[in-house]
Design brief:
38% of the residues lie in helices and 28% in strands. The protein is of the alpha+beta class. Strands 1-2-3-4-5-6-8-7 form an 8-stranded mixed sheet, sandwiched between helices. The chain starts with a helix and ends with a strand.
Length: 196
């Protein structure tokens, strides 16, 4: 085979592989509105709607700042605003549009939210899970976590990861649904869920 033909085959292979990778990273989840099996309550998990949900999510970040972000340099208006506006887990332009934000409501009232994204072609990340303090101890955190895991599984991920504080009571939820500890330090615990 001559060198020109080899180069053409290499370029076509790289273009095809890059296109496939882009498709897998930007693929949308199968469902966007799901009524979760209720515990005698009609919890609805739906796509984030800016007009309806932005202030509720920002208020959650203000109220639960310690649990939702690891350091004090995180500015809610700037960082959360960017995250919600561009559906991005961070300010890297390659991640714009890759964050899924889902909001749980009960009879129209904000219960909580979750956010997750594709970290690599085979690994998803559960980035945020928060329940409004008025709706805790009713199983909504576990329902929302299970929903996020199911969505990430439908997207085809083999592993789902998360980071939480070592003193976060939500660890019980994560362990119940199948996450295991992979590492920790004095402040943070890394957990992973292996899809079978």
């Amino acid at each position: 085979m001559n060198t020109t033909l080899k180069r053409i085959i290499l370029i076509l292979s790289l273009a095809l592989g890059g296109g496939l990778g882009y498709y897998l990273i930007h693929q949308k989840p199968v469902t966007s509105h799901v009524a979760v099996e209720p515990r005698q309550e009609n919890l609805v998990i739906d796509d984030y709607d800016q007009a309806r949900d932005e202030q509720d999510i920002k208020n959650t970040f203000y109220d639960e700042y310690y649990w939702l972000y690891p350091d004090e340099s995180y500015d809610v208006e700037t960082h959360v605003g960017f995250m919600l506006k561009y559906k991005a887990p961070n300010e890297n332009p390659l991640y714009v549009g890759t964050l899924y934000v889902k909001v749980a409501r009960l009879e129209g009232k904000f219960v909580g939210f979750t956010a997750y994204h594709k970290e690599t072609v085979i690994r998803g990340r559960l980035l945020f899970l928060a329940i409004n303090k008025n709706f805790r101890k009713r199983g909504f955190g576990e329902q929302l976590a299970r929903y996020a895991v199911e969505q990430l599984k439908q997207l085809g991920f083999h592993t789902i990861v998360l980071v939480t504080r070592v003193n976060n009571p939500a660890q019980k939820i994560y362990k119940r649904i199948g996450f295991i500890e992979t590492s920790h330090d004095d402040e943070f615990l890394n957990m992973a869920y292996q899809v079978k």
